[in-house]
Amino acid sequence: MIYAIIILGALGLIYGLGLAFASKKFHVEVDPKIEAIIEVLPSANCGACGYPGCAGYAEAIVMNDEELNKCAPGGAAVVGEIAKIMDKEATAADRKVAVIKCQSGGANNTFFRYEYQGVTTCKAAVIVNNGPNLCAYGCVFQNDCIAACKFDAISLDENGMRIVDKEKCTGCGACVKACPRNLIELASEKKRVHILCSSHDKGADSRKACGNKTACIGCGICVKKCPKDAIELQNNLAVLNYDLCIMCGICADACPTGAIIDPLKEARALRKAEAKKKADAAIAAKAAAEKGSAPEGE
Question: Alpha carbon 193 to chain centroid distance?
Answer without folding.
Answer: 13
